[in-house]
Amino acid sequence: MSVNTLTPGTQAIKNQKQDLFESPDFYEIDDLLTEEHLLIRSSVRDFVKKEITPYIEHWAENNHFPYEIVRKFGEVGAFGPTIPAEYGGGGLDYISYGLIMQEIERGDSGMRSTASVQGSLVMYPIYSYGNEEQKMKYLPKLASGEMLGCFGLTEPDFGSNPSGMKTNFKDMGDHYLLNGAKMWISNAPKADIAVVWAKNEEGRIHGLVVERGMEGFSTPETHGKWSLRASCTGELVFDNLKVPKENLLPGKSGLGAPMKCLDSARYGIAWGAIGAAMDCYDAARRYALERIQFDKPIGSFQLIQKKLAEMLTEITKAQLVNWKLGKMMNEGKATTPQISMAKRNSVATALDIAREARQIHGGMGITGEYPMMRHMMNLESVLTYEGTHDIHLLILGNHITGIPAFK
Ligand code: TGC
Ligand code: FAD
């Protein structure tokens, strides 16, 4: 599909309402960013205002994944920003990556899902565990959006506990035979490739690249979602699928291999969710000044001011956590529990803010005229995927006490 072509219906429906978003920066965190960071943020913010926010309510309402966004994300550098330029990536640091995720999720969590799966969960494992041939074959096309990928870890019976997975492959001499199924996979119905985690005959987890068109591979779509409606989700089904031996990622095996990818994606979510929170706060602040009740703007009432003050406080705290975590990511020092704390805090903060902002909008808050209800529904998925809210608490509990309470 051509990059500049909008899906039929989308152009006609284009919401004429202007995106007036202004970013809250109460503690002047911009002072901590470089010129390059500010430039990247500004270009992605402009992209979101042009390519996402005018259409997003329509896409979400119609449960439509705008496939044309894939090439556009490639053009704006949203795929694999931290992957070196020689493989088509941006060669940027983790704060740039965080800012890109923040701006995209300010537009919509489902759109950020598309970008973070491609970058952190497809490009990252191919870059980190793939051989040179695999990197050259897939990474430049994934970076440009010529190819869309997905990441298959979760199974119908193994979500929070991926180490129990049943998907397996057998060595058949000249190929591997893959059997099993993955569930709840973002991008699956439209993906050209899937990075699939499966056990070998010894029960060791490995990553394999499965390509659309391979016999025995199907990707049925998951319907009926009330969340992430502009993102497509599906299953991955492997029925005696012959995988060429050169498609196994040789660099790392064991549960740690997919989990390391999740560290990168969870970090992006920590920034992304605060983007959604910033959008809700900004909408609520604006509405509080415009909406008149009892002959005054509702923003003049103390209870509304309390909501706004608490939103800004929580956003500011999370922005500082994200920035510091980004510094530690850049230095290769960030730990899984530190990432868990940020992901968990940002998503819960964003959900609370979406709900409070919805209340400030009164009845209007439940409509697609304003973004809060969509963000709120999206954030319910974000609270669950990449490790649920409670799993991240247990990761922190394990870190504090040294006692894993998972089992
Ligand atoms: P446990 O015994 O703790 O660990 C097993 C091995 O894995 C290693 N490991 C990690 N390595 C690197 N980074 C991490 N974050 C790691 N977490 C664990 C660990 O060191 C160990 O290695 P080794 O070499 O000693 O064997 O594992 P467990 O079975 O007790 O489970 C621990 C638990 C519950 C924390 C973990 O499995 C977990 O986080 N569960 C949540 C599952 C999850 O996050 N799934 C996400 C699926 S992908 C997704 O949701 C994408 S949505 C994307 C979108 O649309 O944006
Ligand atoms: P379960 O693991 O069954 O958990 C159910 C409840 O039990 C949760 O509240 C959980 O916190 C709690 N629980 C579980 N274990 C414990 C415990 N030990 N102690 C206390 N409480 C516990 N997966 C992928 O691999 N790739 C993707 O691209 C992907 N995209 C997704 C997109 C969407 C829209 C959604 C909703 C999910 C996606 N997932 C993906 C799957 C996601 O990672 C899982 O849903 C998540 O890890 C939770 O697994 P589960 O749904 O099976 O819940």
Task: Give an account of the 3D structure.
- Pfam families: Acyl-CoA_dh_1, Acyl-CoA_dh_M, Acyl-CoA_dh_N.
- Its cofactor is FAD.
- InterPro entries: Acyl-CoA_DH_CS, Acyl-CoA_Oxase/DH_mid-dom, Acyl-CoA_Oxase/DH_mid-dom_sf, AcylCo_DH-like_C, AcylCo_DH/oxidase_C, AcylCoA_DH/ox_N, AcylCoA_DH/ox_N_sf, AcylCoA_DH/oxidase_NM_dom_sf.
- This is glutaryl-CoA dehydrogenase (ETF).
- This protein is an alpha+beta fold and 407 residues long.
- The protein has helices at 10-13, 35-51, 56-61, 69-76, 94-107, 109-129, 132-144, 256-290, 302-330, 336-360, 372-384, 389-401, and strands at residues 149-152, 168-171, 175-186, 193-199, 205-211, 217-218, 233-244, 292-293, 296-297.
- The chain has three domains: 17-144, Butyryl-Coa Dehydrogenase, subunit A, domain 1, CATH 1.10.540; 149-247, Beta Barrel (Butyryl-CoA Dehydrogenase, subunit A, domain 2), CATH 2.40.110.10; 256-401, Butyryl-CoA Dehydrogenase, subunit A, domain 3 (Up-down Bundle), CATH 1.20.140.
- It is built from twelve helices and nine strands.
- The strands form three sheets. The protein has a four-stranded antiparallel beta sheet with strand order 2-3-7-6, with helices on one face. It has a three-stranded mixed beta sheet with strand order 1-4-5, covered by helices on one side.
- The radius of gyration is 21 Å and the shape is globular.
- The protein binds 3-thiaglutaryl-CoA (TGC) and flavin-adenine dinucleotide.
- The site of flavin-adenine dinucleotide has 22 residues, from strand 1, strand 3, helix 11 and helix 12.
